[in-house]
Write a structure and sequence with these properties.
By secondary structure, chain A is α/β, with parallel strands linked by helices. Chain A is 33% helix and 24% strand. Chain A has a 6-stranded mixed sheet, with helices on both faces. Chain A has a 6-stranded mixed sheet with strand order 18-19-20-15-21-22, with helices on both faces. In chain A, strands 2-1-4-5 form a 4-stranded antiparallel sheet, with helices on one face. The longest helix of chain A is centred in the last third of the chain and has 18 residues. By secondary structure, chain B is mostly helical. In chain B, helix 3 runs parallel beside helix 8, helix 12 crosses helix 13 and helix 13 packs antiparallel against helix 14. The chains are: A alpha/beta, B mainly alpha.
Chain lengths: 520, 335
């Protein structure tokens, strides 16, 4: 039954095959999403699923979760063929799924969130919490939760919220936990915690399926890796180490060349954005920063360091309590984002689906939104020239290489990378003086990421000042001429040109913590 | 397109079982209300014959629908931006007594009285909009409160008794016909056309749609969300005032609470309309269809001699049924 590996002496039994996917096919409206996919998930092993957006990872996950049904092929658990018709079937088989969007009930405490979906013990119809609490305590101890079960989940950090979701899965005796991009919104230290939790889960016999775009993480964490491309499995790694470069080659199907910074950081023009000693009421303290025309400045640091807050102050989406912001040498104080847009600033928000795009709307609607007035003959005859709008949207979309048949396609039908390009295209309609990008490539696959970078560079080359916030330090290294690192609402350091390395950013991010420990 | 007129190219379209069901579901979700309307026209046409299908009766149905359609199209914009307006019925009632009172009590010419009343409608909308956006009062609470205040103002202005000395030129506004079609129908068509253009062909309308779809994303795309919302409330207020004015002209008097009933009628129409042609989006053409469905039903039922109480059962029934059908059908067609 179980495929026996080479005779090892250390662990007495090699990890048993828990779940088998064989020759699964699935197509949507004639378009194949999965063409005969097979792989094996072993108990007690972290299994990475990687691939570009649209490669088929989510489709296979949805098939396992009982949300989609394969057109052909079989899924077996413990060697027995099973049919997963509904999510409840999946739960019964011990399969748990933790999705990208947090599925916690806000305002509820940890215990109620963890026991969500479980049948409750009742007495005359009234919930008896004692069995659930007892079980939750066991799970909490196993996961090393340091907060009490009565904690309101809203007050937990993102990593701890993940812990609660994993706890919920364990409450239901999950034997396999699938996680979709668990570390996407986590800082480096939080991600490390999630990694150690995942390792412990696997060590205790649970199979973990780990879907991520962060390939360093995948090659570091996963013992088995399955690479998807265009609905097929193109690479299988079993009990082996693999380099990130190999993974990229498999995902993209070719060697990916991310062009180096071709320009010297000194060759910049006038200062476009000058932030001087800006503070807000809760986090930012005397932050100063300058971005020149044609320069790409990165903002690095841990999540919660105040980078997004600073961007929002500059863009008029939040208020500063003191300090000044100058744009092209003039003092500005924007009351709302529109004022910033009128002054020539563009903003690509962090949460693409919640704050960036309108999924149910067309590409041209999304692209034209910030500059509608220039599509009308005059203020007094505000009749939109839709034809001109479509042409303009098409031009902007072409500039950033949005892949879609037509600008009348719904943005919701595009991949994450293309959605991100649509948001960037919005600011290509009229070239902005300053473009602020918050996590420009979050949820964007490797191939599209390189294209997003190229677009940002081209924009800079044409004289736009770029301020890019990123928690992906590799991205900062690839993209930026200069990087400011923030921690706890302050600037802790600046890196220029060759000084910008992942190590230097990380050590600056943590510098403040170290200082504090010394001070104590 | 290819030179071979082959069957194989067509075959995949006629996929087994699921395909037909899917088409049926999509059709129901988008065209259910229209199908219901067609079925009613067919049934009433067969059972009541010429009494129903005559040009005069069809014009009468449109005339009946005109005022509801005007007030409901204003309400549509408020729902597009994701808010509610419960004050429109009371605003229309106040407009009715105000426009007649300004002529009868203050002796103003009809034209001036109408302009002032429309301005008051805009003012009511502004207050609603400011309360909802700047003071961040929940729209249901804000507009219910404002509406209740308006009832009081209407009573105060008239001292409770109807205003009946209305100049002929004012009642003539709704009595005459142009090209054989009653004036209220023309007013309806003009207002609907204007609001359709506003919603679909102006920057303001695009912004309203964006704000309604996702306020936060709209704001970060550089849209003054509050302004778009206030504009929607102002338009709803003006549409309500116009309805009140036209109703007063039709009745030849200004009566407190004469137009209150338009509130529920217009909500019914707007939600029926949102279940038509588009996936749960509020839109002007849908609203018109919503109003027509209700009025065709009313008209037909009374022509075939159904007792009045059935007409209300029909009105409530079709609203709930149509919206439920389209929601269910949409869900299954996507699944």
């Amino acid at each position: 039954m179980t495929p026996t590996m080479n005779a090892q002496q250390g662990p007495p039994t090699p990890p048993a095959s828990f779940l088998n996917v064989s020759n699964v096919q699935k197509s949507f409206g004639g378009v194949a999403a999965l063409t005969s996919v097979s792989f094996e998930i072993r108990a007690g092993v972290v299994h990475g699923l990687v691939g570009a957006n649209g490669a088929g990872k989510s489709t296979i996950i949805r098939c396992l979760a009982g949300i989609e049904h394969p057109d052909a092929g079989t899924i077996s658990v413990d060697g027995e063929e099973v049919e997963i018709a509904t999510p409840a079937d999946a739960t019964r088989l011990g399969l748990a799924f933790i999705h990208q969007e947090m599925s916690l009930i806000p305002g509820w405490d940890v215990l109620r969130n963890m026991s969500l979906g479980m049948p409750h013990a009742t007495r005359v119809g009234i919930i008896d919490w004692r069995p659930a609490r007892k079980r939750a305590k066991e799970v909490a101890a196993r996961l090393g939760m340091v907060f009490p079960l009565s904690t309101n989940v809203d007050t937990l950090s993102t990593a701890d919220q993940w812990l609660v979701l994993i706890g919920r899965a364990l409450m239901q005796d999950a034997r396999l936990i699938a996680m979709d991009e668990p570390t996407a919104s986590l800082s480096v230290s939080e991600a490390r915690r999630v990694h150690s939790i995942i390792r412990e889960l696997a060590a205790s016999g649970t199979a973990v399926v780990f879907v991520s775009h962060r390939l360093d993480e995948v090659s570091d964490l996963c013992e088995d890796i399955t690479v998807f491309k265009d609905g097929e499995v193109v690479k299988r790694v079993v009990s082996d180490r693999t380099s990130k470069a190999d993974l990229v080659r498999a995902i993209v199907g070719r060697d990916l060349v991310i062009p180096d910074r071709g320009r010297q950081p000194s060759a910049h023009g006038r200062p476009v954005l000058e932030v001087k000693e800006v503070s807000d009421t809760h986090l930012l303290r005397d932050v100063s920063l300058t971005v020149h025309a044609g320069e790409i400045v990165g903002l690095g640091g841990l999540v919660g360091a105040g980078r997004t807050e600073l961007a929002r102050v500059i863009y008029g989406a939040a208020r500063a309590s003191s300090g000044t912001v100058r744009l092209d040498g003039e003092n500005v104080r924007f009351r709302e984002p529109r004022d910033a847009v009128d002054a020539g600033i563009g903003f690509v928000p962090e949460e693409r689906r919640a704050e960036g795009v309108f999924l149910d709307r067309t590409i041209d609607f999304n692209v034209n939104l910030a500059r509608l007035d220039s599509l009308t003959p005059s203020r007094f005859w505000p009749y939109l020239n839709l034809k001109k709008g479509r042409k303009r949207a098409q031009d902007a979309a072409d500039l950033v290489t949005v892949k879609a048949t037509d600008v009348s396609a719904l943005v919701g039908s595009l991949s994450g990378g293309n959605q991100q390009k649509v948001v960037i295209a919005r600011w290509m309609v009229e070239q902005p003086k300053l473009l602020i990008l918050d996590e420009p490539s979050r949820g964007v696959d490797v191939g599209a990421r390189a294209e997003v970078y190229r677009v940002i560079r081209e924009l800079a080359a044409r004289g736009t000042a770029i301020l890019a916030i990123s928690s992906d330090n590799e991205e900062l290294v690839t993209l930026c001429d200069r990087v400011h690192v923030m921690a706890e609402g302050r600037f802790v350091g600046e890196l220029v040109g060759p000084e910008i390395t992942e190590d230097s950013i990380v050590s600056l991010s943590f510098a403040r913590h170290v200082e504090k420990e010394h001070a104590l | 397109m290819s030179s071979q007129p082959n069957v194989a190219a067509v075959a995949p379209l006629i996929k087994p079982r699921s395909s037909f069901g899917r088409v049926a579901l999509v059709t129901t979700s988008k065209y259910g209300t229209l199908i219901a309307m067609a079925v009613m026209i067919l049934i009433f046409g067969l059972s009541a014959g010429n009494a129903f299908l005559s040009v005069n009766n069809l014009l009468a149905i449109l005339n009946q629908s005109a005022l509801t359609a005007i007030i409901a199209s204003g309400l549509t914009l408020v729902l597009v931006v994701g808010e509610m307006d419960l004050s429109i019925g009371y605003a229309a009632s106040l407009a009715g007594v105000l426009v007649t009172g300004l002529m009868a009590k203050q002796g103003l010419p009809a034209f001036i009285a109408i302009l002032i009343t429309l301005a008051v409608g805009a003012g009511i909308g502004t207050v609603n909009g400011l309360l909802v956006t700047k003071a961040r009062v929940n729209a249901v609470v804000a507009t219910l409160g404002v509406g209740t205040v308006l009832i009081g103002l209407a009573f105060g202005y008239t001292a409770g008794s109807p205003i009946v000395q209305v100049p002929r030129e004012f009642t003539n506004i709704t009595l005459s016909r142009f090209a054989g079609v009653q004036d209220p129908i023309w007013f309806m068509l003009i207002v609907l056309a204007i609001l359709w253009v506003v919603l679909n062909r102006t920057p303001l309308g695009q912004r309203m749609q964006a704000v309604g779809a996702n306020r936060n994303a709209a704001r970060l795309a550089g849209i003054r969300a509050d302004r778009s919302k206030i504009a929607a409330f102002v338009i709803a207020g003006v549409a309500a005032a116009l309805t009140g004015i036209l109703l007063a002209s039709l009745l030849g008097s200004g009566t407190v609470s004469a137009a209150d009933g338009y509130l529920l009628d217009s909500f019914a129409a707007v939600f029926l309309g949102a279940a038509t042609l588009r996936d749960g989006e509020f839109h002007i053409v849908g609203t018109l269809i919503g109003v027509l469905v209700v009025n065709i039903g009313f008209n037909g039922l009374s022509l075939v001699g159904t007792p009045t109480f059935w007409q209300y059962v029909f009105k409530g029934g079709i609203l709930v049924f149509a919206v439920a059908m389209s929601t269910v059908a949409r869900r299954y067609s996507k699944a």
